[in-house]
Amino acid sequence: FENDSFFNRIKNCHSLKFLTIDQCHLTEIPQVVFTLLNIEEISLMGNEIDTITHEIYKLTKLISIDASYNKLRNLEFLNTGRCEMPALKYI
Q1: 11 φ, ψ to 5°?
Q2: What's the pTM value of the predicted model, to 2 decimals?
Q3: What mean pLDDT do residues 47-71 have?
Q4: Which residues contact 26 (CB under 8 A, 6 or more apart)?
Q5: Engineering a disulfide at 23: which of 16, 28, 46, 66 sits with its beta carbon 3.0 to 4.6 angstroms away?
Q6: DSSP letter (8 states) at residue 74
């Protein structure tokens, strides 16, 4: 995603609940996403993301994350063996 102005605009959207960043050639989840603490649904479909890291745990209200059609090889956030995201229902 070449235009960082989008991410600069959303970083102060603290009440944002739904975010779609589909088909933007992202190779990782942008750091600004992890500051959106009220986010409930994220769509990252059709990017080039290969890892979802533990930083996703900051999003305790997240219900759904759609990362289909990416290059996921590492879902390290699932490897802890305990539920860090009580609201998460759909991956």
Answers
A1: -65, -20
A2: 0.82
A3: 92
A4: 1, 44, 47, 48, 49
A5: 46
A6: B
The amino acid at residue 57 is Y
Which value, in Å, is the radius of gyration of the alpha carbons in the chain?
12
Q: What is residue 13's predicted lDDT score, i.e. its pLDDT? A: 86
Q: State the number of CA atoms in the 13 A half-sphere of 6 facing the CB.
A: 10
The identity of residue 60, as a single letter, is: T
25, 31, 40, 39: which is closest to 8 by C-alpha?
A: 31
Alpha carbons 40 and 60: distance in angstroms, whole number = 9
Which segments of the chain does DSSP mark as H helices, in order?
A: 5-10
Helix, coil or strand: residue 43: strand
pLDDT computed for residue 36 by the predictor: 94
Per-residue model confidence as pLDDT tens digits over 2-39:
456 777 778 888 899 999 999 999 999 999 999 999 99
